[in-house]
Design goal:
heterodimer; A: alpha/beta; seven-stranded mixed β-sheet; three-stranded antiparallel β-sheet; 13 helices; 33% helix; B: mainly beta; twelve-stranded antiparallel β-sheet; 2 helices; 56% strand
Chain lengths: 404, 241
């Protein structure tokens, strides 16, 4: 025992130094930054407004894995600029509109949109939409095909007698319409302007839009005699994801994957969940449709219209062709609550909405078409002159692909 | 490649030391609980939880005298954690089962009688995050919702639709994942001299990671550190005279 004390005495200095060294090292950890909910920031200054927005994007945006935007560089460049501005000065608020446009210009999320919550901004009612800005600059850009063309021109010109069409106002700014009928007696045609199919189908009051959809679904249930189907989602702005099983699931008797989605599991930009299969589920009593299916889409087909196009193309039978133009490129599903996926849209005091996808969709070929658009099998470009003359080259190509 | 270099290094150390007369070698194994020290930020209904794991090692000890030794424990150790969600998201979770090859190097202080001794370990360690497995259940964006009777409540999202369950190998992301971990350790325990050459021991040890599990890849990055509490037992065999 004596030797123990002697040893400890002789080595006391080393022992104390060792304990001090280990203790000092033990405290060598980086401080964790305080990350607040973007909507909790007080809009007292532009500095706060910028931090709220930048952090919200830093933690919620789902495409950092592939997006070319250098978000750290955005912070370094714009944080000092915003710090010098006055949030109560109308000139500075208008300047901020330009800065937000610059900061977001390269974001690939085609759902992405910002709305500034200030009366000083002339366009405050409108969204800052980087995807829309890019879209309009593209060489092939054209606006939506006039709804009247689908509703009033196509039916008498291309559909057999007995077609069904109808519209219904879902809100003051949202009108749904659908057209269904047959071409040459054996090609089933369906067009609708947005994905609210389940909503319309379940409306308690009968209406013509509902009848048009019902016509299509009744025909699909007894496909004998049909030589093909044309599903027309041109200039369709999307809508409810639940319509996928209703529309595409009605054409298959087996589940199939169209790719995979992922969301966030942590606050880091690259903290993703694993890829989760994106599956189409067969409808009740649905039969596999084996005759040709042609899906028509254009560069204004976005969101659910794109996902439907992609889903139809992924059908296992290989009997689907996509005719038209490359789609818009905004196919990441989204919800209006970022608590679901720990990602997606949010708001701040200064920005009434930062609209962005909740999940990323990877197609069955392993590629992300976000910001790129889904390419057609057979490209037939928009032809304004032809449409003005009452003919539809894209639809005519689709019809020609279905053998009689 | 890094894994092979680390193992080779450990082998060389062990090989060098075995030639010394006052050298002991042994086997140890234990149970651990790993806590991930981080910050969940503003994420609602989400928290990190510690997870159990095990470790196994080959302690090697060089006795400088009766009371002081240098010890190294090349070992395999699991440092796992879980992310769980609550309330409406009850049942959504994600587990990271992380495997590390680790080399603790420590000063070993002994005190007590000839047979039964107490000891204190103090030192540092270097680890290599060799592999990881992820397991859990997440919300399935494309799930087919259950057909429920009218008016039925769904207190949890999984009551209304199935989640997606997975159990797969984790693919490291070289932009984010830092696979070398450095840290400090402190341990204390008792040993019993069973026979002149055999010594049994039991120890409680704390590993404190000092390096973030992530590389410095983004501004306002929330660091993640491992804190691992180990209980282990083992046996040492003294080589030489």
């Amino acid at each position: 025992m004596k030797s123990t004390y002697l040893f400890l005495y002789k080595n006391m200095l080393q022992l104390i130094l060792g304990i001090c060294l280990v203790s000092a090292l033990a405290s060598c950890r980086k401080e964790s930054p305080q990350i607040n909910d973007p909507k909790r920031y007080i809009e007292g200054s532009f500095s706060e407004a910028f931090e709220a927005y930048w952090n919200g994007m830093n933690n919620n945006y789902i495409f950092w894995d592939t997006d070319p935007t250098n978000w750290d560089e955005i912070y370094r460049k714009y944080q000092p600029i915003f710090a010098k501005m006055n949030i109560n000065d109308s000139t500075d608020v208008r300047k901020s509109y330009t800065y937000f446009k610059e900061m977001t210009s390269t974001l690939i999320d085609s759902h992405y949109a910002l709305r500034i919550n200030s009366p000083y901004v002339q366009d405050s009612a409108a969204y800052i939409s980087p995807s829309d800005a890019r879209h309009q600059k593209s060489l092939d850009y054209h606006g939506n095909i006039n709804p009247n063309f689908f509703y009033s021109t196509i039916p008498p010109k291309y559909l057999d007698r007995g077609y069904v069409r109808g519209f219904i106002n879902l809100s003051a700014t949202d009108q749904f319409f659908a057209v269904a009928g047959k071409i040459k007696g054996n090609i089933l045609y369906l067009h609708f302007n947005e994905f609210s199919l389940n909503v319309i189908k379940d409306l308690p009051t009968p209406n013509n839009a509902q009848k048009a959809l019902q016509y299509y679904f009744d025909e699909v249930k007894k496909p004998e005699g049909l030589k093909g189907i044309i599903i027309d989602v041109r200039s369709n702005g999307g809508g409810y994801l639940s319509d996928l099983d209703l529309l595409v699931g009605g054409l298959t008797d087996k589940e199939f994957s169209i790719g995979a989605t992922r969301s966030k599991i942590g606050n880091g930009r690259l903290d993703y969940t694993p890829w989760i299969p994106a599956t189409v589920h067969p409808g009740k009593d649905a039969k596999l449709f084996t005759a040709p299916i042609i899906v028509l889409a254009d560069l204004n087909s976005v969101s659910m219209a794109e996902m439907t196009t992609m889903a139809l193309k992924a059908m296992p039978g290989g009997n689907v062709k996509f005719v038209g133009e490359r789609t818009w490129g905004g196919n990441g599903p989204l919800l209006n609550n970022n608590d679901y996926y720990n990602s997606g849209q949010f708001s701040t005091g200064f920005l009434s909405l930062v609209y962005t996808s909740s999940t990323a969709l990877r197609y069955v070929d392993g590629k992300l078409y976000e910001g790129i658009g889904f390419p057609p099998d057979i490209e037939v470009k928009y032809n304004k002159a032809a449409l003005d003359a009452g003919t539809d080259p894209q639809l005519e190509k689709a019809i020609s692909l279905i053998p009689q | 490649m890094k894994k092979k270099c680390l193992l080779l290094g450990l082998g060389v150390i062990a090989g060098t030391l075995t030639s010394h007369a006052q050298f002991s070698i042994g086997l140890e194994g234990g149970y651990n609980k790993n806590h991930i020290i981080t910050n969940i930020g503003f994420r609602a209904f989400t928290k990190y939880e510690p997870l159990d794991g095990f470790n196994i090692g080959i302690p090697v000890k060089y006795d400088l005298n009766n009371w002081f030794a240098i010890q190294a424990d090349p070992q395999y150790i699991q440092k796992s954690y879980k992310i769980v969600r609550s309330s409406y998201f009850e049942g959504i979770n994600h587990t990271n089962k992380n495997s590390y090859i680790q080399l603790p190097l420590m000063a070993h202080f002994t005190f007590g009688s000839q047979k039964l001794k107490g000891f204190l370990n103090l030192g540092g360690y270097a680890g290599y995050w060799s592999s990881s497995r992820i397991k859990g259940t997440q919300i399935d964006t494309f799930a087919k919702v259950y057909e429920l009777p009218d008016g039925a409540q769904t207190p949890s999202i999984l009551d209304g639709e199935p989640g997606y369950s997975y159990n797969e190998k984790f693919i490291f992301d070289s932009r984010r994942d830092r696979r070398i971990e450095l840290g400090v350790l402190a341990g204390t325990g008792v040993s019993y001299q069973l026979k002149p050459r055999y010594e049994l021991f039991a120890e409680g040890r704390y590993y404190r990671g000092l390096t973030d599990q992530q590389k410095n890849y983004m501004l306002n990055q929330i660091p993640r550190y491992n804190d691992t509490y180990v209980i282990q037992v083992g046996c040492m065999y003294r080589l030489g005279k």
